[in-house]
């Protein structure tokens, strides 16, 4: 399998190089040269498979040329062996048509573990073959950070620098990152928003001297391998609910458009998906873009679902690439215009094409709380604010009532204990494996959201390590 950049001018790469590169050298994102697809018989054969076997079946075409089936299976067994539920991502029925897929049984209690546990092992495997040191740079609104740190802490040949917006992640989220004291882990709280942090990461990649001097790589969903691993659970849920004979819809709490883009990939690969519901909080750029063509950046409003307090959604570029007929130079021009003016108008024809698969809903704080209460009172489930945004959008959808809707439950409720308690009166407890979080020492730097300050910190840290 070969991969191409959405901006058309970076070199075509195989899976191993794409994984280690993270972002393409022309500023674009890597995507497979063509979408692999499964026949209905192949999808039917996924019914009853374990999560690991589903993962191997779904990811095999993407890793071709870099890993054989036995190697892939070994990595999946190691990654998903660390999940605390035997089903890895269990599916729960809430009422006659609403389902919840719990993606938070990994080591750091959010869906990010599904991809990052595997990505950590992929880095290790690929670096073992090379005499190279990798500097991983990431931005987090709360969950990617701890999942990436858990996956990379203590690994040889890798340092990780993780930027989070100071004071805008929950205390549990911050402590999950900053109490990891492994010498290769470096947390930075920046004076700004997640969008500022993400822009700084991209600026470091765009600084060609810096990027090659430190051999930068990415753990955010700009890295293709992240999305590849997330495609698996759409097939896993779909097969359990009757695919390929019955279409299924998914409601996806959305910020950086990575998780829902993985659903788009599953649809491209042949999974019958009736609709992908893009559920946003009041930071609603994606809802405006999909419903009215208005992809313009507003100011970020802090909410009770802080991991989704995002305006610039990196992976939207991957969808725009397909909507531009995979014309890299045309998309590159559009994205440069967007970067300069902070707005992009999505033409009606592209919106109509997207609407065949995507719908979108903006969920405000009151509606989110109502969904949390409904889940607790009617379905006896305590859910987190992000998952509640997905559930609210699923409940408000006007889809054919015979279609089951799976809401992706993206985080454990205990990560957002205050918000859950406000809505339901219940204070969820952290699983024992996270215990002691509040007693442990924290270590992090606080820096302004300026490229010079961050690059200087990375360079000084690297020099001190020599
Ligand atoms: C708990 C949670 N839910 C939903 C999202 C949104 O996912 P995505 O950025 O893939 O759209 C995030 C952050 O990415 C998150 O941490
Ligand atoms: N919500 C995310 C934001 C970064 O998203 P990613 O999927 O691109 O890593 C977070 O928790 O950090």
From TrEMBL:
Matching Gene3D superfamilies: 3.40.50.1100, Threonine synthase, N-terminal domain
Name of the molecule in the record: Threonine synthase
Family: Belongs to the threonine synthase family.
Transmembrane segments: none
Enzyme class: lyase
Biological process according to GO: threonine biosynthetic process
EC numbers: 4.2.3.1
Residues in Tryptophan synthase beta chain-like PALP domain copies: 92-327
This protein's UniProt keywords: Amino-acid biosynthesis, Lyase, Pyridoxal phosphate, Threonine biosynthesis
UniProt cofactor(s): pyridoxal 5'-phosphate
Sequence ranges assigned to domain Threonine synthase N-terminal in this UniProt record: 2-80
InterPro entries linked to this entry: Ser/Thr_deHydtase_PyrdxlP-BS (IPR000634), Thr_synth_N (IPR029144), Thr_synth_N_sf (IPR037158), Thr_synthase-like (IPR004450), Threonine_Synthase (IPR051166), TrpB-like_PALP (IPR001926), TrpB-like_PALP_sf (IPR036052)
Pathway info: Amino-acid biosynthesis; L-threonine biosynthesis; L-threonine from L-aspartate: step 5/5
GO function terms (MF aspect): pyridoxal phosphate binding; threonine synthase activity
Catalytic reactions on record: O-phospho-L-homoserine + H2O = L-threonine + phosphate
N6-(pyridoxal phosphate)lysine modifications at: 112
Domain of life: Bacteria
């Amino acid at each position: 399998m070969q991969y191409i950049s959405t901006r058309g001018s970076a070199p075509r790469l195989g899976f191993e190089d794409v994984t280690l590169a993270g972002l393409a050298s022309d500023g674009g994102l890597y995507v497979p040269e063509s979408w692999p697809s499964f026949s209905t018989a192949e999808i039917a054969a996924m019914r009853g498979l374990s999560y690991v076997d589903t993962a191997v079946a779904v990811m095999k075409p993407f890793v071709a040329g870099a890993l054989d089936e036995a190697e892939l299976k070994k990595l999946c067994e190691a990654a998903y062996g660390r999940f605390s539920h035997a089903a890895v991502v269990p599916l729960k029925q809430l009422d006659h048509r609403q389902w919840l897929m719990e993606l938070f049984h990994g080591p750091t209690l959010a869906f990010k573990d599904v991809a990052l546990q595997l990505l950590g092992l992929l880095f290790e495997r690929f670096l073992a073959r090379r005499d190279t040191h990798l500097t991983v740079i990431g931005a987090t609104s709360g969950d990617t950070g701890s999942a990436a740190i858990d996956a990379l802490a203590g690994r040889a040949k890798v340092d990780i620098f993780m930027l989070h917006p100071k004071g805008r992640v929950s205390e549990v989220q911050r402590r999950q990152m900053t109490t990891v004291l492994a010498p290769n882990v470096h947390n930075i709280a920046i004076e700004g928003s997640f969008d500022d942090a993400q822009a700084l990461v991209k600026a470091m990649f765009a600084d060609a001297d810096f990027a090659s001097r430190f051999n930068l790589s990415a753990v955010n969903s700009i890295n293709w391998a992240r999305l590849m691993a997330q495609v698996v659970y759409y097939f896993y849920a779909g097969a359990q609910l009757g695919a390929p004979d019955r279409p299924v819809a998914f409601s996806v709490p959305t910020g950086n458009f990575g998780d829902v883009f993985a659903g788009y990939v599953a649809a491209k690969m042949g999974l019958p998906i009736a609709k992908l519901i893009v559920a946003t909080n009041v930071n609603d750029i994606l809802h405006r873009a999909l419903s009215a063509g208005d992809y313009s950046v507003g100011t970020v409003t802090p909410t009770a679902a802080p991991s989704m307090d995002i305006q610039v959604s990196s992976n939207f570029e991957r969808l725009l690439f397909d909507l531009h007929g995979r014309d890299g130079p045309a998309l590159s021009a559009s994205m440069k215009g967007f970067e300069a003016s902070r707005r992009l108008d999505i033409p009606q024809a592209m919106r109509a094409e997207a609407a065949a698969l995507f719908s979108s809903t903006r969920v405000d704080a009151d509606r989110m709380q109502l969904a949390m209460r409904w889940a607790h009172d009617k379905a006896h489930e305590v859910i987190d604010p992000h998952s509640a945004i997905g559930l609210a959008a699923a409940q408000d959808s006007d889809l054919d009532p015979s279609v089951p809707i799976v809401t992706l439950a993206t985080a454990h409720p205990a990560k957002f204990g205050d918000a859950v308690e406000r809505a339901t009166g219940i204070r969820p407890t952290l699983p024992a494996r996270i215990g002691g979080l509040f007693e442990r020492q924290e270590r992090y730097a606080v820096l302004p959201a300026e490229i010079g300050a961050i690059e200087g910190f990375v360079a000084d840290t690297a020099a001190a390590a020599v």
